[in-house]
Amino acid sequence: MNRSKLLYIGSICLLVLITVTATTYVCSLMIEKSAPVTNPITIDYDTEALKEAHRDAVGTIDSTPSLQYEKEKIAEICDKIINREVIPDSYYGFLVGDDKLIEDIKFHNKLTAEFCEYFTHKATGIIIAILELNNDDGSPMTSYAKDCANLSDENRELIARISKHCLYENANELLRSDAKLSLYIAAEGGSSAGLWPSLIHVEISEGGANEIVGLSDYFDLEKRLVTELVDIINAR
Known about the structure:
Blueprint: H1 3-34, H2 47-58, H3 67-82, H4 99-131, H5 145-148, H6 153-165, H7 171-177, H8 179-187, E1 202-205, E2 208-211, H9 215-235
Antiparallel strand pairs: 1-2
Helix pairs in contact: 3-9, 4-6, 4-9
């Protein structure tokens, strides 16, 4: 066999060897890629553990307020009653199921607004009287809207303080111990002008001096509401 034939056969053998080697390598890659994982890494999601962690973070996993949040809101209602404030109806949702209590709070709102208006008007008359206030034209000032616009900010504050104190049963003591009001009260000494704090809850008429209608019931309502709300907070 001559040399050219040997070279030709050798080339054919080398080509075959390369082809077989390449094919084997490709097949091994395909097998490795398609072979199932014998020991896969899995993550075990513990649903209850996640829920518990969420409860710790936000208090609850549903849309209802947490118990602590409810207690805080009920405490805010209690504080507003103590401070003689009208309670927004958005707070009623924290007392669902206690319709009687909600109705009593609505009544508190009604009376608080009415008495606040009543005592603001009365306090305006008191400040005008004891300070002998006049309008710019020299005419005596009245407690009606057309003259109230002429009140100074300082006098408006005095009126607000008087009307606020009047919403409490011990208004006489609150008025006399108020640093901004006691100065004017003490200045009047024992004159009739200095007696108004003790008569603040009284209506003077031809028939005599009588307690303002409904005021005692209002004070009783405030005490009862605070007691009931505190009981609810302690029971939850």
